[in-house]
Amino acid sequence: MKTPESYEEATRRGCDLLNRGEYQQAADAFRAALEQSPRNDVALGNLGIALMKLGQRGAAARAISEYLKLQPGDAAAWVRWGILLRANGQPADARKVLGRALLLDKRHATAWKELGLCYLEEGRSEEGCEALQRALTIKPDYVAACCALARHYEEADQPGPAIQVCTNGLHKTPTEHRGPIYGLLGMLYAQTGELDLARISLEEAIAQGEAAPALLFELGRVNLRLDQPEAAQRQWIALDSMGSEYAVRLHRLIDQVAAKAHGPSQ
């Protein structure tokens, strides 16, 4: 007869599954551990992480809040709770929770980044930018904070500061992690009409695996503006192979450019 699994064994099994990215199985293991030991803080905290990975925000928030009753000094857990609250459309509540995290660890870069996003969602631009910049001061290669700050400037119709943020981020970020910054920078250069720089940045982003349809479409448009329809055709083929709606839009632009090049029929 098989010996029943102890809560310690279930917790260890859950941690192994979590580390392997098997989030549903990990959550099940942590729940099994908690059935035997409801105050098992390791199982509770990791259950919250697994549920966040599964997108089960409500259940994750409940697990994390219960965990924090047992371990109120865990700054990272307060940050996770703040992330969940912001994702649930509660930026004011998220700010309070993130503030608690920063009281415990004032150099927690993710807390500052999330706080900045909360401020921006509330329309408090200056405070949001300051918090995002604080995150970048603590962690200069923080790609998510760099892109968030640049996108804010872009949305505020300030492409110059947005480009500067991206450029600074490229200098401080390891080569293999620069893809998202290159993608955003390429879109910004396209907006400002710096087409050669846009093409170079977008190609670099795609080479690093950022082959989102929107980037391929923008690169196709840039190539058409640079009078390189053959290159744009390659982006259309890639989009078409993805079944993306951007393929139809780019094909329409390619046809329009071809029609203008041939002139009106006689």
Features of the shown structure:
266 residues, mainly alpha, 0% strand, globular
Explain this structure to me?
- With 266 residues, the protein is mainly α.
- Helix content is 78%, strand content 0%.
- The chain is built from 15 helices and no strands.
Quick structural summary:
By secondary structure, the chain is mainly α.
The structure class reads: mainly alpha
So what's the overall shape? globular
Rg, rounded, reads 24 Å
Helical stretch count? 15
Chain-wise SSE layout:
Blueprint: H1 7-19, H2 23-36, H3 41-53, H4 57-70, H5 75-87, H6 91-104, H7 109-121, H8 125-138, H9 143-155, H10 159-172, H11 179-192, H12 195-207, H13 213-225, H14 229-242, H15 245-262
Helix pairs in contact: 1-2, 1-3, 2-3, 3-4, 4-5, 5-6, 5-7, 6-7, 7-8, 7-9, 8-9, 9-10, 9-11, 10-11, 11-12, 11-13, 12-13, 13-14, 13-15, 14-15
